[in-house]
Hints:
Blueprint: H1 9-30, E1 42-46, E2 51-54, E3 59-62, E4 65-69, H2 70-84
Antiparallel strand pairs: 1-4, 2-3
Helix pairs in contact: 1-2
Amino acid sequence: MRGAGSKNSWALFLLILAGLVLGGFIGMLAEGSSAVGWLAYGQTFGVEKPIILDLGILIITFGLTIKITISSIIGIVLAIIIYRFM
């Protein structure tokens, strides 16, 4: 049984995911601007060439690329702060 002060970890996960997506979107919008262009500064890493598994009838492609920007980090931090006050 959970205590009265316990919080749901799924809520934290969803808030972090929402902060990441919204922060990435804001970074993408700020990319061309000179005033807030620093929000789009970041690093991209992952699999450059996707891995293809050809089974004859079924072709499965595996690939993952992650782009972390300043705005997505700010979005994650804000999501955690919002979660703490829930």
